[in-house]
Amino acid sequence: MMKKMMWLILMAALMAACQPVSQAAPSPTAGSAPINASPSNAAAPATKTIVVTYSVLGSIVKDLVGDRANVVVSMPNGQDPHEWEPSAKDIEVIMKADLIVQNGLGLEGGMEKTLQQAHDAGVKFFTASDHITVRHVGAGEGIPTGDPDQAVGAEDPHLWMDPVDMKSVVEALATQIKTDLGIDLSDRAKDLEGRLDALNQEISDKVKSLPDANRKLVTGHESMGYFAQQFGFKLVGAIIPSITSQAEVSASDLAALKKLIQDNQVKAIFTELGTPPAVAEAIGKETSVKVIELTTHSVPSDGSYFTFLRDLAQVIVDGLK
Ligand SMILES: [Zn+2]
User: What crossing angle do the helices spanning 305-320 and 55-65 adopt, rounded to 10°?
Assistant: First the structure.
């Protein structure tokens, strides 16, 4: 009886604790003015807004721009850039941008219609992939699938995996911001480029601790090409060609991947956002290779590109030892 009473009291307390949460948030009044409207007339110089499509590129743009302009990232961090689609509100922000910074090469698949609309309306654009040497998917990389993004010769959009490529992006973007927005970021660009060089060196040094034979990557999808190229890894294969076509991965594709993992004596399988965990686990089990989660398309909690790439390299080096 006593126990039952205690239980009831506990339940009542829990329910009471829960209730304010569901009742506290008043439903927003439709059509009300945004509370956080920026005091644009208060700032001394006219504040420009730069819209960046996704978080990893957004981090670098924020590092470059500092408080010299507003930097807005369209996709919420952690969403898959290959998939995400903007809301009406997001589209409004994009259409009003003073400059849009995009990755290009089809990364922003779900945003392309909106970006085209902005382009047609005369919004200024900077495309990161215009300023690097684009990598093409090579023969023998990954498993053959019907996905055009993964076909041999396809342009690889994952350019943020190479800090030296990001350096080229920074240099070109600073030049364009000066031309388009009249903001001189040359000192900040120089500083950021130096930090990217240092990051590149740091990762190169870290990778040196791995024997050549261990530098083999199996990932969720073909996202590590630029990293592999820059830091001397071999791309052995990918579990799925992309999130949208995961259902198309056939038993024979997976059998081929398992054989590649065994033949190459791969030390770890890296899964990413969108990799079906059950498939990865099954491959890991059947090949006796460990499965490790890798963050490839979003920034960590501190929002820093530098932490992102440093952590990524560390997980890879630790996983392949
Ligand atoms: Zn990707």
Answer: 130
pTM across the whole model: 0.82
Expressed in angstroms and rounded, the spacing between residue 222 Cα and the centre of ligand 1 is 7
DSSP states of 90-155 as a string? HHHHHHT-SEEEE--TTTTGGGHHHHHHHHHTT--EEEGGGGS---BPPTTSS---S-GGGSTTPB
For residue 294, the CA-to-ligand 1 centroid distance in Å is: 12
Ligand 1 centroid to residue 9 C-alpha, Å:
50
- The alpha carbon of 48 and the centre of ligand 1 are apart by a number of angstroms equal to 30
Distance 235 CA to ligand 1 centre (A): 15
Rounded Cα distance between 142 and 57, Å, is 25
Nearest to 192 by CA among 64, 308, 303, 56: 64
Between the CA of 111 and the centroid of ligand 1 the distance, in Å, is 15
Residue 21, strand partner residues: none
C-alpha of residue 308 to centroid of ligand 1, in Å: 15
Q: What's the 201 CA to ligand 1 centre distance in angstroms? A: 24
pLDDT tens per residue, range 212-263? 999 999 999 889 999 999 999 999 988 875 433 344 677 888 888 999 999 9
Asked if 298 and 311 touch (Cβ cutoff 8 Å), the reply is no
300-to-10, 70, 168, 187, 305 alpha-carbon distances in Å = 38, 21, 23, 26, 8
Q: Each residue of 82-132: pLDDT tens digit?
A: 889 999 999 999 999 999 999 999 899 899 999 999 999 999 999 999 999
Instruction: Set out the domains of the chain in order of their start, with CATH numbers.
Output: 49-139+148-197 (3.40.50.1980), 206-320 (3.40.50.1980)
Handedness of CA 276, 278, 284, 287 (dihedral sign): negative
